[in-house]
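re: ur question from yesterday

yeah so i grabbed the chain u mentioned. its 62 aa long if i counted rite. heres the sequnce exactly as i have it in my notes:
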Amino acid sequence: MNCPQCNSCNVKKNGHQNGKQRWKCKDCGRIFRESYEQKGYHPQVRKVCLKMYLNGMAGQSG
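ran it thru and got these structure tokens back, copy pasting raw so excuse formatting
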């Protein structure tokens, strides 16, 4: 396990958050998790929404 900020392997366990193990770098103090989940809409959905917004189709009430 390496720190994502300074790439040090001098890390220790630092509790849990949302059921995931947290780690703390002893060198730079950064707190991080081993893996991250990307949240949000699928890129294709975002593309369609942006296209609708630019065309003035979003937010219109009937």
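noticed a couple things. The first strand starts at residue 11 and ends at 17. also DSSP finds one helix and three strands in the chain.
anyway ttyl
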